[in-house]
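Troubleshooting log. The previous run stalled partway through. Resubmitting the same two chains, unchanged.
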Amino acid sequence: MKHSLMVKKQTVKNTTYAYGFHKKESSVFKTPKGINQKIVESISDHKNEPSWMTKIRVEAYQIFKNYELPKWGPDLSGIDFSGIHYYNSPSNKKFKNWMDVPKDIKDTYDKIGVPEAEKKFLAGVGAQYDSEVVYHNLKNEWEKLGVIFVDTDTALQKYPELFRQYFGSLVPTADNKFSALNTAVWSGGSFLYVPKNVKVEIPLQAYFRINANAMGQFERTLIIAEEGSYVHYIEGCSAPIYTGDSLHSAVVEVIVKKGARVRYTTVQNWSNNVYNLVTKRMRVEEEGVGEWVDGNLGSKINMKYPSLILAGKGARGELLSLAYAGRGQHQDAGGKAIHLAPYTTSTITSKSVSVGGGRSSYRGMVKIANGAKGVKSFVRCDALLLDELSRSDTYPVNIVEEQDVTLGHEASVSKIGEQQLFYLMSRGLSETQATSLIVNGFIEPIVKELPLEYAVELNRLINLSMENAIA
Amino acid sequence: MQLRKRIMNYKLRIKKENEEIVIPVVWIGKEKEINYDISLDGVGSSLIFLMLLLGEKEGKVKININVNHQAKETKSKVIIKGVINDSASVDFEGLVKIEKGSKGANAWLSANLLLLSKTAKGRAMPALEILENDIKAGHATTVGKVNDQELFYLMSRGLSKTKARDLIIQGFLSGFLNDFPDGKIKTEALNKLKYENI
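Second attempt completed without errors. Output:
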């Protein structure tokens, strides 16, 4: 059945990207464009790091140099590794009081709304501007309980034993080209340590901002949740729109000890000139719970597959992945669940929306090792294609080496239901409103897991880009 | 055994309008590799691809199935069912691609594997690439063992464990086998499965 109400050929106007402004650059220390051993050493030197860290960085650089770009997935040949600044420090001080943050940096975060959010509903905030974290604060009540929430560079100086024990324990340097690059030039990121049985009831947040042109941001985040603890960590990202492409390549390692629970929420909203290539991994021990909530809205090419390594008996993992690909965007998102222990369970839910010529791909893997009895895993991916220009792919891998398991995988691809659209329009909604409503309903299972402020923001962003997509 | 027999390559283009093709395949451990490359070029053409995998002993197979929708109103249904015993292993990769312009295409891809032993292994990768929005496409995978509750129920009614298990396997395959066109392949499969009546 075809009628005139069908979504017509859609033209895309320039998307209004609310965070596209940029502040004049004023850096304290900036490496020249490109990367070589000297630059890697100078970053380490500037940070006054112990010699073992310098050694790790230099080794990582050698690995990075020798690795080829991945032969699968989106085309990364457009990245000009020699045209990027790998380190740019906007300020040589870190601040614990918002009023002390330099004015132009403060203005940026004021616009994004970080201080407001901190006042209202967060236990602590970290803010990274280009390569360095400029502001980090944890509310006193949590500090008293022994929670450590600092930037990763400070952690290396102040808690070297803890740092050394876990750094690279889940994502080894040689894991892939971009984990090697991150290890070579990493700077900033959050270091979060939650002691035994401490439950941080309100979320902690980090906000990443790229400001300089042709900049690479390589933050490194390490989260350790001791036995029986709980924490919810949220990260947000944005960048100005420049003509030159930027590269964001982070490594995130999360250790969830026995009976602990960690939720890691990302709302990735980079501007459409950022390559976002991130390695995220979580190891969950006995009876622990690990959760990824991964919202991918921005960036030019996004490759991000948060992984759950379920290593202890009865560990539980959950991944909610949302990808929204507009014009010129390729969202290659998904996730992995690796079941190493008996009675572990995982659920992966992926929702993707492609519009205005965007391409979204789900790439995922479930592996059940021999001996992991009683494992249950369920994967569900749904894709919505809004017009004729867009594309949607699904690449799931399921590997089962154990008999006593239950594994299910389901996927569907569809366009907007004409009947739904017709119904809503017959009630007086415009085509744009009706489409937005249907898209918001489609992604609802993921949005409802986000903190309220983020959920509202996400809905607003989707409505905004929908208005631009459906002329 | 001759080497060329162990790799099966098959290419097919369905060119005629509204042509319907049914391809039944049964694997009982002979081939090492099975590759099918099928393209739906004719408007309204349709494909039903049924594959039964019966793995035992050290049998290992790599299966690659590509289905390409190139025309309007094309339909494809690829159903793989496997019963894997002993140390057998199945490695399945399927790709259904719907090219731009194939309006009204409808694709379904599913793989269900039943593992009968502790050392049986399965890998399934059913992928979709969709470049057209006016379509329907879905895929599903399940991997699991014989349901303990069903087994217990049947045994409580006096069936031996082997008998009960065979009955569950028959149930797992019955609807699927009914879709198989009659002929040598079906008879062979039924014999292998020790079907008494269907």
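Takeaways: The CA atoms of residues 39 and 68 of chain B lie 5 Å apart. The two ends of chain B are 33 Å apart (CA to CA).
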